[in-house]
Amino acid sequence: MVVALAAGAAATYRYDLVDRWFPADTPAAVPPPPGFTLEPQPSPSAVGRPAPVTDRASGPTAGQVRRALGGAVDDPRLAAVSIVVAPLDGAFDARPLIDDGRRRVMPASTLKLLTATAALEVLGPDHRFATRVVGGRRLTLVGGGDPFLAGKQPTTGPRRNDASLQTLARLTAHRLRARAIGSVRLAYDASLFSGPALSPTWPAGYVPDVVTPISALWADEGFAPDGSGRVPDPAATAAATFASYLGKDGVRVRGTPQERTAAAGAAPVAQVRSRPLSDIVEQVLQYSDNEGAEVLGHQVGLAVTGHGSYAGGVRGVRTTLQGLGVDLRGARFYDGSGLSRDDRIDPRTLVEVLRLDSGADHPQLRSVVTGLPVAAFDGSLALRFRGSRGRGWVRAKTGTLTGTSALAGLATTRRGHTLVFALVSNDIPLLDALDARAALDRLASRLAACDC
User: Fold this and answer.
1) Local structure of residue 443 (DSSP, 8 states)
2) What is the pLDDT of residues 77-117, one digit of tens each?
3) Domain-by-domain residue ranges, the chain?
């Protein structure tokens, strides 16, 4: 009995059974020690306007939206502006509330919305791209069209989960050591994509300042490992980087890596896989990543037409979006990023695509919406909308080329309704570029400030 009582007391002490079985009073009920007084705490104020209660039966009207936009639509800094505004709710083919301006505009980077939507529809949000090594004493590094394949393995930041050549080399070296292979010859295969590395419709000056030649095999989107800028042959540079990592892992690479198509039945050695496509889409849209968008366009072309090229990508995107019910009559575009100055689409198409991406019927497309930058918060809108009513209530894809500024996205009104909009200004004089961008921000902010 004594032993049992002692054991029970020890267990009670060890596992805090008294506090569990007989809890003390709550902190508010415990009196403060003598002489201690606590100053009364003020009630905190709200950091933003409260979420409104919406009446879905009575959405915004065209008159309310026009009054909200007011004279901002006549701002001369906007040059030739097209404005399309529609409610998020309602029939997919319903007429917009506002539909002013040209029917065909240069979309700039808002075209990435079409590319991203098609990629998610065709490949699925969970799809991953694989970069492989095959062979034995003669290895081949095979590009799988991973837009964000890294050279050195990232350890921090949004890309810390990206696949890398460093990790692939470590896995490869481990397998080779298991086979008692200490030296190899290396080739590389970027044949997944075909056609020209640069769109024929791009100005020659885009390379190397604006975009990297598109390849199914590269590291860090074709930027040099030393950070000196874009490289002219991304696949060859990636192979050289991979060879250097193999050497650091104890595998000697004899000679210089040569370009060669891998044999169909080559033995697999190692592979790394990208982040899910949904994450890649968000990254592309957040920062208006031209290289990433072009790779996605090529992947759509490969999946739909069998050709991973600019022409194949355009056909693949058109076929996919038309299959989803998007009206592309009169549209012509030549790339996946919107860099071509020959691209033309109806701004209503941008609104249709965003409504499609937001709808409950197509949850696989949702990361297009979640990838839109938030005004004055992140991505390409981080430094815009400061001090405006649109801050935090607008999220949109940006578009900028010489003479063109565009915004396409969503704005939440004061009554909690969501408006979908496309604002595209063409023919902007060069010296008015920043003013036109500010004028577009003002239009979007007025949509968020609409009492409708």
Assistant:
1) H
2) 999 999 999 999 865 556 899 999 999 999 999 999 999 99
3) 62-123+280-448, 130-275
C-alpha to C-alpha distances, 293 to 94, 281, 347, nearest whole angstrom: 30, 8, 19
Nearest-CA neighbor of 331 among 321, 425, 440?
Answer: 321
Going by pLDDT thresholds of 50, 70 and 90, the confidence category of residue 157 is confident
Report in angstroms the alpha-carbon separations of 67 from 323, 326, 413, 451.
Answer: 36, 29, 13, 10
State both tokens at 184. Answer: 């190899």
Query: Measured between alpha carbons, how far is 168 from 132 in angstroms, rounded to an integer?
Result: 8
Letter string b/e over residues 252-289, b meaning 16 or more CB atoms within 10 A of that residue's CB:
ebeeebeeeebeeebeebbbbebbbbbbbbbbbbbbbb
**Sequence-ordered strand ranges (E) for 201-302:** 252-253, 258-259, 268-273
φ, ψ of residue 120 to 5 degrees: the values are -65, -40
Pick the CATH number of 62-123+280-448 from 3.40.50.12160, 3.30.390.10, 3.40.710.10, 2.50.20.10: 3.40.710.10
Q: Please list, residue by residue across 429-448, b when 16 or more beta carbons sit within 10 angstroms of its beta carbon and e when fewer do.
A: eeebbebbbebbbbbbbbbb
List of residues 6+ apart from 451 with CB closer than 8 A: 64, 68, 413, 414, 415
DSSP run (H or E) holding 400: strand 394-401
Partners of 377 in the β-ladder: none
| Residue 151 · residue 220 · CB < 8 Å | yes
pTM: 0.87
How does pLDDT run across 306-332, given as a tens digit for each residue? 999 999 999 999 999 999 999 999 899
Average pLDDT over the chain, rounded to an integer: 90
Q: With beta carbons less than 8 A apart as the criterion, state whether 295 and 116 touch.
A: no
Asked if 84 and 411 touch (Cβ cutoff 8 Å), the reply is no
Q: H-helix or E-strand containing 171?
A: helix 165-178
Residues in the chain: 452
The amino acid present at 156, given as its one-letter code, is T
CA 23 to chain CA centroid, nearest Å: 50
Identify the residue whose tokens are 């500010």.
Answer: 438
Nearest one of 412, 155, 163 to 274, comparing CA atoms: 163
Selection from 217, 250, 252 nearest residue 137 by Cα: 252
Contact 331, 356 (CB under 8 A): no
